[in-house]
Amino acid sequence: MKIPLSWLKDYVDIDLPLDQLARLLTMAGLEVDEIHTIGLPIPHSDHSEFKFSGLEWDREKIVVAQIDEVMPHPNADRLVLCKLKDGTGEYIVLTGAPNLYPYKGQGPLAQPIKVAYAKEGAVLYDGHAAGLELTTLKRAKIRGVESFSMVCSEKELGISEEHEGIIFLEPDAPTGMPLVDYIGDAVFEISILPNMIRNACVIGVAREVAALTGKTLKKPVPTHKATGPSLKGKIGIKITSPQLNPRFAVGMISNCQHAESPYKIQRRLRLAGMRPINALVDATNYVMLETGQPLHAFDYDVLVKRVKGGVPTIITRTAAEGEKLTTLDNVERTLKDYTVLVCDTEGALSVAGVMGGLESEITESTKTVLLEGAAWNFINIRKTMSYLKLNSEASFRFARGIHPELCPEAIQLCLDRMAEWTGGEIYSDLVDEYPLPAKDPMVTVTTNDVTRWLGIDLTADKIASLLRPLEFVCTVKGNAVEVKTPPYRLDIGEEIIGVADVMEEIARMYGYDAIPATRLSDEMPPQRNNPSLEREEMVRDLLVKFGLQETISYRMTSPEREARWLQPVDKSAIDLDYVTLQNPIAVDRRVMRRSVMASVLETLQKNIRLSNRLMLFEIGQAYLPQKDNILPTEPRQLAIALSGRRETPAWDKKDNNTLDFFDLKGILEELAEGLHLEKVSFTPTTADGFHPGKCASFTCGDVTLGVFGEIHPLVKERFDFLQAPVLAADIDLEALLNVIPPLMTTSPVPLYPPVLEDIALTVDEAVPAGKVEALIRQTGGKNLVDIRLFDIFRSIQIGAGKKSLAYSLTYQAPDRTLTDQEVAQIRGRIVKRLDQELGAKLRA
Amino acid sequence: MQDHPILNELEELRKKGLESLQVVQDELGLQNWKVANLGRSAPMTQIFSQMKTVSAEVRPLVGERVNQVKKEFEAALEEHAAAIKQAMLNKSLTSDAVDISLPGRRPAHGRLHPQTKMLREIYRIFGDMGFQVYRARDVETDEYNFELLNIPAYHPARDMWDTFYTTKPGVILRTHTSPGQVHVMREYCPEPIRVILPGMCYRYEQISARSEIQFHQVEGIMVGKHVTMGDMKGTLTDFARRLFGANARTRLRPSYFPFTEPSGEMDVECFVCHGAGCQVCKNSGWLEILGCGMIHPTVLRNGGYDPSVYSGFAFGMGPERISMLRNQINDIRNFWANDVRFLEQFS
């Protein structure tokens, strides 16, 4: 909402500098986004707090002047010479302004034209440039005539984009006065909060300023007498649904002459962001900006013609589904059965509260205006405007709730302006149907309430004095204040909700800044751990410790993108159930992901050419629709992807080895150890997406935690990965977190020395090393404390299809030093058992 | 007697021996010299075998002299060995010097996503004030996301959230973490509550440098019998000071949220320009960091609490926005794009 300062000053005295006024408004919830100055000086300070823009007018060089005569240019048809007085002398000024042509060659003008006059050295915007380009007025010779000054258009002064003609100021503009003193202004761009539609008007803002500064609000009063006949019998009103249309009032003015509104009005409309049209239309817009009440003007003669000279009756009703109306933007609208229409007996005239119809709109030939001021159900209006995708100044306001009490006042103000600007005659009364008066809740606020909500102690009188300037009617009764909602706002609820609403008004007027900041003193709630989060963070920390980079991906994807991972290599398509968006931002983000692994592989793909070594992981939700619930489950998954060099190359490291299965397995082993998991095992398995020979399941006890391995060559192709293997681990985080033991136990530090021994065993190639190790461990008993595979060896000597596994064994007893004999016994048992079960032979 | 040939021979051996020691330059040379001059078959040792040929009166003199030379040799050897050791040390110190300008070998390490770090910082600060983390679901019902938060259908406040709808009627992606407020109240009622609710939220927006379709939010809620707007101000001011520095100035100004009344927004003085006005704060000197307010009676009631007995406050903030401000990240799209060149900067 754009509020011109000059307009605001019509209703409240303001003696604050621009930035202080902006701060006052912002701290009351009317956030000032920008202050655009038109001529007024921009304050310069270290802490301006606000964004200022605009042009400052030099007091000496830009003044009000008068043109006494417009003369033809000797050498140019499109230029004129003006005889001009600026209070210091008389000059001949050259201009090409087309709106001066009609005065050319008329001799001395009976009434001088008042203009904005800029002298040599004045800084202005270039009227002919496309945007806003500053230029300094210089002495020049144009077609043989010397020029050192100019008469200005609105664009040159930064008032609007208008630069077709020069500004004609009001005839009473004082010649010689610095222009900034005459029409200098500043426009406050204010964000209107959804519950503050009452302030989307100049009076609303003025009321706030008055309340905050202790000044009086000066409301406008109509000055023209309603001397016309009574409206009774000229118009009928029929409201079919008071719920949707609580009030419908009309007034009338006749004998209007087509005219433009005064320059001051046009300028204000432009500053407020509206385009002046003609005096009648401008009056409705001006009053809407002034009071917040949207008005609609009908050409009464058109209405009479529609009923063939009879008495028109206005009917408000909902549309028939599919009913059509051409709105005044010349678009034919198809309406819904809940759209409220303003009709006459012949059909629809306008979409209520949103936009007028084309047929009955005001034209240059309109003589008699029927002026509508109505109240509409805001939810219905919002529904209609979002369906029609039609955002008008009227619907913006009605959709947030306009109080029905504003109608008659706004109609009268508007008729008054119409009379003033077009010479019309106002009918003596209104026709006003008001079947559903607004409630204006009364709530009781106690001093105790204020202490309990806001943490400040105020007397009942103080509470009342904070609220009265906002026109709340307050009655103090002991420690309580009965607060009656003023009839310009619909945002105060009933009972305790109303108390909360009034509480905000008390806080605003008291000043949020003045409320003291206190530390929590209320009872501490029961303290609880959050193992689900704490363990998730533990997993993150471990993986980071192992050198992995965490990622967080978009959770919206497409089935096609995920199919690159989820679709088995031997199937052409899969059909998975997804949480699907009705209004996706793009086709490739139309569902919620099912697989975090797919996200991480995408990230790997994105980065694979940027880095020679990638170790990534992500922890996050996947979204799996359920059959028996409208909401999906949102299990957390852990996905790890590795690819590239095992070591970052350096000046003294030429190792080109790439990460492989065992790097990933090592990470999972270390993760399991870091989480103190018990009974972890890795079993060969096959799973979709993985290389069948390089894939294992990761289990803890009998709980499968996930699958990992090298991804299938065909899956690798889908992602366009490089040559190096891509390792992936797809882990069910919920399962992993559940098997973490709450406590870990330690073993005592050994007191007796260990016995170390290496043994090498020859086994068939097909025997898994894990089986050999498990058997050694099992047979070795509690005194075999460590087993480490340190070599795998294959040769002709050993024989084809055989391999030699070399283990370092550590024997240690907790209570004594083991003898060579004891160790030999254990070893003997191990070798024997391995021979029996796996055919393993001890190598000499 | 003094010029007995054997003494002359001895003198000759002495001279030669000491001379030859001078040219020895390394450990091996020293060993060889020692064997040659002091060993069992050294000429000097051989002199004892010639003793028989020497007259008895000269014999003690020769013996004494041999011992003298031996001692002299040993001393010379020790001295020369020390000199050589020193020379070798000096040489090795010179030749072992490295080019310290070569790059160091860095230990490989991983990194958390910057927003995990940001969230943890927020958890820690509120944790110290007794707020615990409570998490709720991403895919929500319209009821929890809007209705129970005092935002009925077609309410003008709905304009504040551009919503992603799913194909299931009444199921949406949460537009804020606020639905968690009702979940947590319904779970803990009638206990007092102090929790924060972090999570991913979604809004139907055009993705740009400033706006994202997915973003974190951390909501906080406190409910009790003695909770005031002053408490809210104090809690949030303390939070801002811990996050932005002990001297951070804040201001609380009125705002609007359907689920709080009164509502406010907290700004922190721009830490880039300290209020003077700059690009980061768009010349306002202030940065908006969170929205807050006293929980609306309707919402308290929907959570099971009697608004005439209980009160509470709630607040919500965008961790990505805070990171952008603190780390001067000019494009919000960096967060989920997962470009390692961005992520690697957050070591």
From TrEMBL, chain A:
GO molecular function annotation: ATP binding; magnesium ion binding; phenylalanine-tRNA ligase activity; tRNA binding
The protein's Enzyme Commission number: 6.1.1.20
| Domain of life of the native organism | Bacteria
**Pfam families documented for this protein:** B3_4 (PF03483), B5 (PF03484), FDX-ACB (PF03147), tRNA_bind (PF01588), tRNA_synthFbeta (PF17759)
Ranges for the B5 domain?
438-517
Cell wall biogenesis/degradation as UniProt keyword: no
- Alphabetically ordered keywords of this record: Aminoacyl-tRNA synthetase, ATP-binding, Cytoplasm, Ligase, Magnesium, Metal-binding, Nucleotide-binding, Protein biosynthesis, RNA-binding, tRNA-binding
Which stretches make up the FDX-ACB domain?
750-843
Q: Name one GO biological process term.
A: phenylalanyl-tRNA aminoacylation
* Co-factor(s): Mg(2+)
All copies of domain TRNA-binding, residue ranges: 56-180
- Where is this chain's protein located in or outside the cell? Cytoplasm
Concerning Gene3D superfamilies, the annotation shows: 3.30.56.10, Bira Bifunctional Protein, Domain 2 (3.30.930.10), Ferrodoxin-fold anticodon-binding domain (3.30.70.380), Nucleic acid-binding proteins (2.40.50.140), Phenylalanyl-trna Synthetase, Chain B, domain 3 (3.50.40.10)
Q: Name one GO cellular component term.
A: phenylalanine-tRNA ligase complex
Quote the cofactor binding remark: Binds 2 magnesium ions per tetramer.
Which reaction equations make up its catalytic activity?
A: tRNA(Phe) + L-phenylalanine + ATP = L-phenylalanyl-tRNA(Phe) + AMP + diphosphate + H(+)
Instruction: Summarize the subunit comment.
Output: Tetramer of two alpha and two beta subunits.
Q: Which HAMAP family match?
A: Phe_tRNA_synth_beta1
Q: Which family does it belong to?
A: Belongs to the phenylalanyl-tRNA synthetase beta subunit family. Type 1 subfamily.
UniProt protein name: Phenylalanine--tRNA ligase beta subunit
Species assigned in the record: Leptolinea tardivitalis
TrEMBL record, chain B:
Its primary localisation, in coarse terms, equals cytoplasm
Specify the superkingdom.
Bacteria
Residues covered by the Aminoacyl-transfer RNA synthetases class-II family profile domain: 116-345
Q: Name one Pfam family in it.
A: tRNA-synt_2d
Name the protein family: Belongs to the class-II aminoacyl-tRNA synthetase family. Phe-tRNA synthetase alpha subunit type 1 subfamily.
Q: How does it assemble?
A: Tetramer of two alpha and two beta subunits.
| This protein's name | Phenylalanine--tRNA ligase alpha subunit
Q: Which organism is it from?
A: Leptolinea tardivitalis
